[in-house]
Design goal:
36% strand; Immunoglobulin-like; 512 residues; Aminopeptidase; eight-stranded mixed sheet; five-stranded antiparallel sheet; alpha+beta
C-alpha cells in the first residue's frame, strides 16, 4: 500500500508540475492562383487548448523586413481557434519578395527559470577547451579558420538564417559570422549577442575571448528551441584585437540595415575570470572620480574580483536594466557592478576596448559584459591565458543572466511559427522582335516553349513562393523548340522566365 500511494503521489506531482506544451503548426502546404495564396496546415496542442492564430506579411528589402498591411485575409485566424485542419487565404500583394509568418500560441507561459538553467557549464568547458589556441590571421591562421568553420557550422545546424559580412583589412579579408533568429511579428526590432573570436598572436586566448565565443554559442543553441516576437542576432566578430576592425566594418559598411532597430547589444568581452581573494581586483586611474559609489563598494569588499562588470552609456540604460533585472531574478548569486560612462566613453578609454564601442559610435544601445581584463586577470594577453585558470560557475552565471535578458526583451512566444518566403511577379508577355509561345496553359505532362529570333536563352521555372523547379540554358539552335516534362510537378501556379540577351519574358502557367 505504501508503494502504491508513493506511485500515485509521484504521478500526481508529474501531472501537477509538468509544463504546458506550446501548440504546433504542422503539415503546411500552400496553393496559389492569380489572386491569392492559401496555406493549409494542422494545428496541434497536447492539452487541446484553444489558440490565437496570427498571420504577418513583411516585404523583404535587402536584409531587412518592412511590415505590410494586407486587407482581406480570411480563414482560421484570430482568437479561440481550436486544433485540427486549418486554412488561411492571403490576397497576393504587388510585385516583390515577401516573408509570410503564421503564428499560433495559447494562453500559457514558459518557465523562464527552467530555460535559463539549461546553460551547461560542462558544455561551456568543453567548448572552451576546443576554442583555446592562437586564433590569429597570421600567427594562427589554421586555428582561426577552424573556429570560423565551427561557428558557421553551428549557426547553420541550428536552422538560423546565417550570413557572412566581409571587409578588407589590408590584404586580409575579415569575416563576421552572423545568425538571425527572426522575430515572428517584429523582425526589424533586434537584440544582438556578440563576441570576437580572434585573439592576440602570442596567446591561447582562453578568457580573451574564447569565453565570449563559448557563451554566445551556448545561448544560440538554447534560443534555437523557442520563438520570439523580436529578432535575436548572434555575431562572431573578426579582428577585434587590432582596433575593433570587424565590428567597425559591420556597423559602418553595410552590416546593419537602415530598416533595423537595434534594441540592445550584449557584447561578451572576457567573462570567465573570477577571484574571491582580497586585492585581486584593481581599478583604472581616475575610476574613483568617475564612479565613486562603485569604487567604494569594491573597496568595501576588499577589492575582490568576484563580479561581472556591466558597462553602458546613457543610451543603453534599457538593455542594461534588463541585464541587471535578469541577474537579480534568475541568477541572484551573480554580483553585477554597473558603470555608466559619460557620452560615448571618450573620458574612459579603458571602457572602450571592445566591440560595444562600435555600436555606441553609431548611436546603438550596447553593453560590454566583462570580468575586467588586465585589471583582474593577470594572464591577459599572455601565454598563460588558459582555460584551467577560469571559473566555470562564474562564467555560467554570466551566460544565464544574459539569456534571461534576451528571453524577456525579445518577448518569447509560447507557441509555434511557420515562415514562408513568397515572390510575386507580374507576367511580361513579349519582347520587341522576339516571338515566344508557352503552352498549354494549364499545362499537362509536357510544357512546350517555341520561339523565333530568341538566340541563346535560359529557361527558369519556379513556384510563386520562389522555389526553383527547373533551370537550363539553351543555345540558339535548341531555343526554337523546347519540351519540358512536368508530370511529377505538383498542382500550382508557376512562373516561367524565358531570358534572352534582349530581355526576359515572364509568363504564369498553371498546373491543375
Amino acid at each position: 500500500m505504501k508503494n502504491t500511494l508513493l506511485g500515485i503521489f509521484s504521478i500526481f506531482c508529474v501531472q501537477l508540475f509538468a509544463q504546458n506544451q506550446p501548440p504546433a503548426i504542422l503539415n503546411v502546404s500552400s496553393a496559389q492562383n492569380a489572386k491569392t495564396v492559401t496555406y493549409n496546415f494542422t494545428l496541434e496542442d497536447d492539452e487541446n487548448d484553444v489558440c490565437t492564430v496570427e498571420l504577418h506579411v513583411f516585404k523583404k528589402s535587402g536584409s531587412g523586413f518592412e511590415p505590410l498591411t494586407v486587407n482581406g485575409i480570411t480563414g482560421d485566424i484570430g482568437n479561440n481557434i481550436s486544433t485540427g485542419t486549418k486554412a488561411i487565404s492571403v490576397p497576393l500583394p504587388s510585385d516583390g519578395e515577401y516573408r509570410i509568418n503564421i503564428v499560433a500560441y495559447d494562453g500559457h507561459s514558459f518557465d523562464l527559470q527552467a530555460i535559463v538553467d539549461r546553460v551547461d557549464t560542462l558544455h561551456l568547458y568543453s567548448d572552451l577547451k576546443w576554442l583555446e589556441g592562437t586564433r590569429h590571421r597570421t600567427a594562427g591562421a589554421a586555428k582561426l579558420k577552424a573556429v570560423q568553420d565551427i561557428i558557421e557550422s553551428l549557426f547553420t545546424s541550428l536552422h538560423y538564417e546565417p550570413s557572412i559580412h566581409t571587409a578588407k583589412f589590408g590584404d586580409y579579408q575579415l569575416k563576421n559570422y552572423i545568425a538571425d533568429h527572426y522575430g515572428a511579428s517584429s523582425p526589424g526590432r533586434i537584440l544582438i549577442n556578440d563576441a570576437h573570436y580572434d585573439c592576440v598572436p602570442f596567446g591561447p586566448g582562453a578568457d580573451d575571448n574564447a569565453t565570449g565565443v563559448a557563451g554566445m554559442m551556448e545561448i544560440s543553441r538554447i534560443i534555437a528551441d523557442y520563438h520570439f516576437r523580436k529578432s535575436i542576432r548572434f555575431i562572431g566578430f573578426d579582428v577585434e584585437e587590432d582596433g575593433l576592425i570587424g565590428s567597425k566594418a559591420y556597423v559602418g559598411q553595410g552590416g546593419l540595415s537602415v530598416k533595423d532597430t537595434i534594441e540592445g547589444v550584449l557584447n561578451f568581452e572576457m567573462i570567465g575570470y573570477y577571484s574571491d581573494k582580497p586585492n585581486s581586483q584593481t581599478l583604472p586611474n581616475g575610476f574613483n572620480l568617475l564612479f565613486p559609489a562603485q569604487s567604494a563598494a569594491i573597496a568595501a569588499d576588499s577589492y575582490k574580483g568576484n563580479f561581472i562588470t556591466n558597462v553602458r552609456n546613457s543610451n543603453s540604460k534599457g538593455i542594461s536594466d534588463a541585464f541587471e533585472k535578469s541577474a537579480t531574478t534568475y541568477v541572484p548569486e551573480l554580483k553585477v557592478v554597473t558603470l555608466e560612462v559619460p557620452g560615448n566613453g571618450a573620458l574612459t578609454p579603458d571602457l572602450l576596448r571592445s566591440d560595444h564601442a562600435s555600436f555606441w559610435t553609431a548611436g546603438k544601445p550596447a553593453l560590454m559584459l566583462t570580468d575586467g581584463a588586465n585589471f583582474r586577470n593577470k594572464n591577459y594577453h599572455t601565454a598563460n591565458d588558459r582555460v584551467d585558470s577560469l571559473n566555470m560557475w562564474f562564467m555560467g552565471n554570466v551566460v544565464k543572466a544574459s539569456i534571461g535578458a534576451l528571453l524577456e526583451e525579445a518577448n518569447i512566444i509560447h507557441g509555434d511559427v511557420y515562415s514562408s518566403d513568397l515572390q510575386v511577379l507580374t507576367a511580361v508577355d513579349q519582347l520587341p522582335g522576339i516571338s515566344v509561345e508557352i503552352f498549354p496553359n494549364p499545362m499537362n505532362e509536357i510544357l512546350h516553349i517555341t520561339s523565333q529570333n530568341a538566340g541563346n536563352c535560359t529557361v527558369d521555372i519556379q513556384t510563386l513562393s520562389g522555389e526553383l523547379i527547373f533551370n537550363k540554358k539553351y543555345d540558339s539552335e535548341a531555343s526554337g523548340k523546347i519540351e519540358i516534362g512536368t508530370s511529377k510537378w505538383p498542382a500550382a501556379t508557376y512562373l516561367v522566365k524565358f531570358e534572352t540577351e534582349q530581355g526576359t519574358i515572364l509568363r504564369k502557367i498553371v498546373k491543375n
